[in-house]
Amino acid sequence: MSIGARSQSAKTYLEKHYESFMDCNLEELIRHGLHALRETLQQDKELTINNTSIGIIGPVGAHEKTAHPDGPFRILEGEDIEVYLKGMTPKESAEGAPGTTTAADAPAGQTGPPPPTGDDDVQMAD
């Protein structure tokens, strides 16, 4: 789910990839969430450790340095999320985000739609 300003781009990303979520581990789900969040940013903006937080409910992930025994909900911020940000597919090849096929992966002569630019919403193919 995505709410707030510019949330439609994130919703579109999540709708496009939701079928793969059942087979994802925590790190892959976080990566999908970050890719969806990145879709809401202005073209010249990037996710960084200074403007991104990750809220998690459930077991501790492989990259978490400290687990808080106070409950199943926690927020990762700062350098704790750097490994997740570095694991993202670069923006230029966002079409190749987890669970998708890029033009380079397609058979010769067959290409997909161009990646979205700027503030445009991602359009789902029928």
TrEMBL record:
InterPro entries: Ntn_hydrolases_N, Proteasome_sua/b. Pfam families: Proteasome. GO terms for biological process: proteolysis involved in protein catabolic process. GO terms for cellular component: proteasome core complex. Residues 87-126 are annotated as: Disordered. Residues 96-111 have a biased composition (Low complexity). Gene3D superfamilies: Glutamine Phosphoribosylpyrophosphate, subunit 1, domain 1. SUPFAM superfamilies: N-terminal nucleophile aminohydrolases (Ntn hydrolases). This is Proteasome subunit alpha type.
